[in-house]
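User: Show me a protein chain along with its predicted structure.
Assistant: Here is one chain, sequence first, then structure tokens.
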Amino acid sequence: MKQAIILFAFILFSAVGMFAQTQSDAALSRVTTQDDTSRDTSRKLPTLTVQEHLFRADVYMSNRHFPEAREHWQKILDNYPTDATAMPRTLFGIARSYMWERQYDK
């Protein structure tokens, strides 16, 4: 009986882990496609809502696509400088992305 419970727990945790990774991969694919198709002729991102920029930056950040995440955070800095909820996350995200890339001189 104990072995059956351990086996069930292992299968449950494995399934949850695979599902979480699939969601992350799916989100990255969707966000990348949306960014690629929405750029203008000079390859600049359009201005989206602050929530959408934060979401896309979070997706990129969690998948270690740091320059793409910083691009969305920069749009927040440029277009929503007075947003009290977005600014702390934006500044922290930018700093953290440079830290993870070991670019301490930025």
